[in-house]
Each structure stands twice: as structure tokens, then as C-alpha cells.
Amino acid sequence: MRFKAEIDVMPLDALLDPQGKAVTGSMKNIGLEMIDGVRVGKHIRLFVEAASRGEADAKVEEACKKILSNQIMESYSFTLEEV
Questions:
Q1: Could you give the CA distance from residue 64 to residue 9 in angstroms, rounded to a whole number?
Q2: Can you tell me the distance from the alpha carbon of 44 to that of 83, in angstroms, rounded to the nearest whole number?
Q3: Going from the N-terminus, what domains does the chain have, and what CATH number goes with each?
Q4: What is the pLDDT of residues 17-57, one digit of tens each?
Q5: Residues contacting 45, CB < 8 A, separation 6+
Q6: pTM to 2 decimals?
Q7: 38 to each of 23, 24, 45, how far by Cα in Å?
């Protein structure tokens, strides 16, 4: 079976996000002062071959923990869909 994972990695809420702060400042500069609290993360899409949904879920979880996120500074979430 083939699965598509859509993964979002975001900085932890307790940590500063310099990129998000810069984007928030830019919003004000272009007249969008009603937008604030911007946080910038990353979105990753990948495909995984697995015998079951549970196996695919475990492989994506492992990839997130070991490579795709820094768990000291980031959180992640993902969705999985059979394709």
C-alpha cells in the first residue's frame, strides 16, 4: 500500500520565532496591522510504502522524530492518506 503524509513542523509556542516576528513586522509595514502573532514553520509531503496504515504511521512518526523535526525546539503533526 502507498500512503501520502502531510507533515507540519512548527516552533514550540514557548520559544521565540524570529522569522515569525519579522513577518509580523512586515504585515504592519504594508497596512495589515490587524495580523499579528505570525509563526513560521515548514510543511513536508512524503510518500511511504507500507503493508498497513499502522506501519505507515509508525514510519512517518519515526521520520519526524529522527530527521524532520528537532523535538527540543519544534512540534510536529501529520495526516496520512492512502493513495
A1: 9
A2: 17
A3: 2-82 (3.30.1280.10)
A4: 999 999 999 999 999 999 999 999 999 999 999 999 999 99
A5: 4, 5, 6, 7
A6: 0.87
A7: 7, 6, 22
